[in-house]
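Protein in question kept underneath.
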Amino acid sequence: MKKKTVMAMPAGCFCGVAAVCILGIILGSFHDYDINVALANKTDLGAFFATYGSFFSYCLYPAAGACLYVGLKAKGDRFHLLAWVLLLLGCFMAVYYSNSYNGKTVRALFGYTAGESGTFLSVLSWLFWAVLYAWVPFVVIRLLDHADPDKLIAVGAAILIAGIAADNVNLWLKQVASRPRYKYLITLEDPASEYRNWWQMIPNLAGSNDNFKSWPSGNMTIASMMFSLPMLTDVMKIRSSKKNLFAFVIACLFVAVYGYNRIHMTNHFLSDVCFGTLITYILYAVVSTAFLKAAEE
């Protein structure tokens, strides 16, 4: 009997990650503020990781595009245009999200000032991200096993769709909660008096004000994409359960460091981090299971 797997890993791994997230939510529900007081401390290294750490997660978008490209090309000439469109879409999403969330920092490196600098510098910042991701599809296409196009399509579609869905669910929940960030609270005379737990929601208070978009963590939505990495290693030419396990361990370590960084940099509370991880992980698990089951049948 075939063992139950979730994103190319034993179901126990999924349960373990979910359990850790739930424990973090429970702990944070009682001690969120105290944990931030103890750990929060902005540093240059933390700021660098906050800006560029998401690069590794966003590489999964062009990798997903590569899976779709190879899978659809194998289906025949009539799918070639669709294959190219989805490959380019995967690359575009990586550039788009990177520029949307971290573009301000990169534009500053190029000396861009909104309203003063010319269009060229803004375009240059886009090209910066495009160059960073350009190598990914070329490498992934060479590593993929072309023997099972249906599975490649399922994996690529799951990574792409679940990633976009998780980002939008996260944005909606931020408006529902409108929870103040710790970095905003510490600018007030009495931070503790304005602190709110995650369940003390005031829907639509946030609007466009980033100071009230603490719950759940959007960056953890990005970081948690890495849990789909074992699915990618599972469709490579040279694959094994050990390689999938190694990819899973890498994902866990990356998410843990990213989560600490969000608290350390005063952007989020522990419960924000754990909710962001759990929501994304569940979305990826549901979407990937549905696509892979369809591919097998």
